[in-house]
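Incident log, structure service

09:12 report received: a user says their structure output differs between two submissions of the same chain.
09:20 pulled the input from the user's history:
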Amino acid sequence: MRLGNFGLLASVGFGALLFQAGLASNSAFAQTSAALTGTVSSAEEGNMEGVIVSAQKEGSNITVSVVSDDKGNFSFPADRLAPGTYAISIRASGYTLVGPKQATVAAGTAAKADVKLGRVQRRAILPMLSNAEWLNSVPGGDAQKQFMTNCVGCHTVRRILSNPHTPEEYQQVFHRMGTYSPGTVPAHPQKLLPGPRGERPPIAANQMGPASAYLASVTLGNQEGIEYSFKLQPRPTGRATRVIITQYDLPRKETQPHDVIVDRDGQVWYSDFANQFVGVMDPKTGAASDIPIPVLKPEQPKGGLDIEFDAQQQNVWLSMMYQAGIAKVDRKTHQVTTYPFPKEWQSPSTQASMVSPQHSDVDGKVWTNNQENHAHYRLDVATGKYENVGEAIDARGTKIDAYGMPTDQQNNVYLLNFGGTSIGIRDAKTNKVTIYITPTKGSKPRRGRVDSQNRLWFAEYGANGIGMFDPKTAEIKEYPLPSKWGAPYDVVPNKDASEVWTGSMVNDLVDRLDTKTGEYTEYLLPRTNTNIRRVFVQETGPRPVLWVGSNHDASIVKVEPLD
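09:34 re-ran on a clean worker, output below:
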């Protein structure tokens, strides 16, 4: 198949939602001095706003990134770059860095690096495309492409669309993919054992035929396939350029930092989706260490998912996935206590995906679940005994299967139906379940958090938006994301819920919602195909700081808005 010329996707609407009033240029950063400054330019384009410029010190695992303003200027604050030699890199759709590729920062003076970019030609652009840019570019309607968002949990869309497979071979791939655990990546596959959920196919059986024929017609590996141009996401503009982004590479390259949270002392904790560790990192130095988590079922896939603090932040809790239990880690001593599910409740497919200790101080109970049969369990922390409260069924006999399980201030547990279009809440005292339907069909509620007003904010993965449920009115309000293919996994409000954040598994954007105006700011991340799951907001400084894990890049990302 011949490659067409790649075209820019018009940036209609992207900048229209950004705040405009009273914001200083990002080149100043409200700082008194800079360590490294410069201007981005290209012979092919005059205005080079929105280019991400990154600097990584030689021998360091920390990369700092800033974004060029409407004049193409960029500046790194002096307190972010210590003296030394830095490798320079950029992110700008359709462009590559011509030079300079290195800069030396000295103490007490600002270094200068005027960055020159050049257009990327033909196949050289392929490694630069985000999953969303692949989906925007490939022919067909969005509904026809939607199934590919199920694949980015393990690998990129590029991997799907670069193979010379026939329709029959793609169907074989679909069946094989269903035999791997969710913590699988190409370099570290983990097979599921035979059992009730021994296969998790990425697409329904009746859709495999049409999907495989479609992929064979558009893959770049098929010389007879359809020719198409590449449509690139617009670069950030306005408020979205006023940000500092710091990326911390973790020492174990096989680490999958699925959930990232920050404790009251500023230490960063993360779960490993594919290995038996909980990690903790000092953001001042970038030094990270592993805390081993005991193996409960050696024959099963390894790794944890949900990681949470209890009410006093004394302990860190982890859901242990196919190890069929939850674990408690003492934040100070790093002592680990595991709570296996009772053996008579287990099968080869038992899966503890969620753990909710945030309000365990109310009644001494920690919520968790068995994703295999959608039963909900409560652990009595004092006795170490579990209670099985069963599936969630309301008075009408309607059932809700919960993935996300955030708790409110009374330790009632919300139920987010990732497989459908509803949310529910289970009363901790009466066990009564009440179910509510989202306004948008196929919304696929995934994960979220409860704010100080006891309202639930949650990700609508299938509806590409954020949802808010107010228990006082029993109403759900939805906030559609401005960019396509957001596939938001999780949502977190700040303390007063004036802002709400989410991140994408597909388009490399994190979204900041102003809940008073309904307007979004979208920050583009420096590395292509940043696979975001959990989102966490730290509020110990003058402005909120967003933390996420890059699940397939063995790194942690900090996003600091400058306003």
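09:41 both user submissions now match this output. Likely a transient worker issue. Closing.
09:42 reviewer note: The longest strand covers residues 34-42. The radius of gyration is 23 Å.
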